[in-house]
Amino acid sequence: MFLFPFLHESEAPMTARIARALISVSDKTGLVEFAKSLHEQGVEILSTGGSAKAIEAAGIPVKEVASHTGFPEIMDGRVKTLHPKIHGGLLGRRSVSSHMQAMTDNDITPIDLVAVNLYPFEETVAKGADYDTCIENIDIGGPGMIRSAAKNHESVTVIVDPADYGRVVAEMGDNAGATTYETRRALAAKAYARTGSYDAAISTWFAGQLGETFPQRLNVSAELKQTLRYGENPHQQAAFYTNGKNRPGVATATQLQGKELSFNNLNDTDAAFELVSEFSEKPAVAIIKHANPCGVAEGETLLDAYHKALSCDPVSAFGGIIAVNRTLDAATAEEIAKLFAEVVIAPDADDAAKAVLTAKKNLRVLLTGGMATPDEADMTLRSLSGGYLLQNRDAGRVTRDDLKVVTKRAPSEQELNDLLFAFRVGKHVKSNAIVYVKNSTTVGIGAGQMSRVDSSRIAAWKAEEASKNAGEETVRTEASVVSSDAFFPFADGLLAAVKAGATAVIQPGGSMRDQEVIDAADENNIAMVFTGMRHFRH
Ligand SMILES: NC(=O)c1ncn([C@@H]2O[C@H](COP(=O)(O)O)[C@@H](O)[C@H]2O)c1NC=O
Questions:
Q1: Is the pLDDT of residue 2 over 60?
Q2: CA 165 / ligand 1 centre spacing (Å)
Q3: Domain 20-210 coded CATH 3.40.50.1380
């Protein structure tokens, strides 16, 4: 018995003529033009309530699905296309005689094209709609038709995105009203990606409703923003996907100019923009190399902040990524243009700044359209071999009220400001992270060392080098403050900071030897505050 005579790919019909189409769209962009083109190519159009009305209003002949099925749209549209005359017309295999016979026996006519876009569930959730509204925006009939049509792509064309109308119409024009197998297959793949992401959005929303931070099954959906030249290294392939949440940053950025972005560029630029987004009160600049800052500063103007940030480690800043938290102005752009930088990222740039940077053809300039909110709750996902690590984004932000003075001497006002600045920067430095700050400017950063005391020493040494290179008489860590992303396990890290000239320390506290560290601070007249919050970054 020849039950499932599946075609081999090579036997699949090359083209499939479209005699009948079903249009059922929530987003009516391009609908009338599309329906008009189909009509002009002799296609009979079936359509649901609102879509049919729009087509009819444009004077294009259309048949209501209800009159095609002989069954009315019921239950506020919950049931309109869920009918064997629709799904039989989509799923019946034209090459299988028993299927065609079943169609004839049941008065089912083939439907050769389906154009459907779904109830705007994601947008409804994003707007913060109530539970019932979200439920009503779960499309049932639409995904059903999409899945049926896509399964039968051997003969049926499925369109889920108005951006594809033109392509299909053009192809039909070139092929006597037919589409090619290649196009139908590509559209089918796109269709299942759409229903998959739609269901992922629904299951994520449900998990949220149930208060499940970590659902049993994690469904993640993201959209390709761009393929990249290569990955972290040239032998790796890479692409950038966005999650649709539109957090201002690399995901929302438009590239004004410059070379193609690489994987490392994006990773570093993200780090730079997230860091500079920590600061909103004053103009701030962060310069990043290999995802770690080599200079961060607040200033009275952006130019002032840039000069201060650059002064921290101008040697490392070469080839760096520069992020700013204000509209980029011409004066700052002119200074940036003097440095070899890979990327500049800003919420916006004025025309004069844009004009200055055009001279630097290779420099990538990204404009995000806004700043990211540092304490916004979200989840972060990282891949491991064979799995993923999911956690809350580190949205923790220490304020003055959280600080506990643990030493005899309390920090001065100036020290307090710098301590908070340093701790905020330290959150964005790979652990172990030690950050020296003076006047809202980093003066020495020790990142990514396996021992905290090494990070302390490196940060002090970097400051020493920068001071020497700038011909300064005193080392910049003199009378500075220092932050540590986690507690000092021993007094040695603190003593390294004392040796470098720091006068105040900020750290989470919580070590078994806290008292030892506090005593060492008191002995050296250091003011120390505990934050009670750690900012490891691995
Ligand atoms: N229930 C059904 O049988 C059904 N069939 C199609 N839809 C959706 O109805 C919308 C179009 O409705 P209208 O043409 O009435 O504006 C489309 O998003 C389509 O995916 C349905 N709606 C919900 O499931």
A1: no
A2: 19
A3: yes
